[in-house]
Amino acid sequence: MITARPLERSDLAAVVDLLQAYDRQWFGEPVLGVEDVRSAWEAPAFDLATDSEGWDEDGELVAFGTLGAAAEVELAVRQDWAGAGLEDAVLDRWETEARRRGLDKLRRDLPATDDEGRARLEARGWTVERTGWMLRLDPNTPVQEQDLPDGYAVRPLAEPDVPAAYTVISEAFARYGFRRTYADWRAGTVDRADLTLEHGRIVTWRDEVVGVCLVIDPAPGGGSASDAEAWVPQVAVDEGHRRRGLARELLARTAVAARGRGVPRLALYTNGDTGALGLYERFGMEVRHTLVECSLTL
Hints:
Elements: E1 2-5, H1 12-27, H2 34-42, H3 48-51, E2 52-57, E3 60-67, E4 73-77, H4 86-101, E5 105-111, H5 115-123, E6 127-137, E7 152-156, H6 162-173, H7 182-188, E8 201-205, E9 208-213, E10 229-232, E11 235-237, H8 246-260, E12 265-271, H9 277-283, E13 286-297
Parallel strand pairs: 10-12
Antiparallel strand pairs: 1-2, 2-3, 3-4, 5-13, 6-12, 6-13, 7-8, 8-9, 9-11
């Protein structure tokens, strides 16, 4: 017998197992980890009691769904329950709840190869808004730091810089639907247990923060040193200071510093709206996974 209930914090490991099984099915490797889920649950706008649901079979979690702080639907179903209707049950729950709350749109990202998942969403009125890519900089790709134009400087990120970094990021991504409060953004980035502030970089113009690159190091013991990969959740430059090579230099110095810590790879995500794919490819990064970003207008 299967029963539904809100998730609890003790379900964290089981939720990650379901997500990573889905990742391995479509990407061939796990993409999301414990801190990705934990930090999403820590957002002030997210409440496990009202924004999550799990389905148990004989006390074992076989499916879950959440409605995140940015109106994103996350779900995963154990393979032996795939196609049994749980995917639609999750979507039913959060589409209904989103309408009750007066939300205007829901979001969900899928691997581009998940044709069944995409067809399920489209049958419910969802549409594909854009394509996105996960890119990786391999250890054998040379990276050279370059001089910046006069007046600019790069240094490690520090706590007093965090509010200004948020302003740069929120303004840079506002046109792409960024709508996280400062507290929710902090929970998902700088307050994560696996993010060390000084590993990130900021660029300043006459002491004003005009660019930022955050980086998350891999969990200890997560694999061989040669495969260790740092993840860049956000890199942004103030609109008035673009086309000066600042984003490229933020990435270069972040990558060089990561390699100095024994983390040889660097990875990030971008989508077609930002127009940044070419920048990252010229920097030496290569696409490793392609996704589609889907939405439902309510």
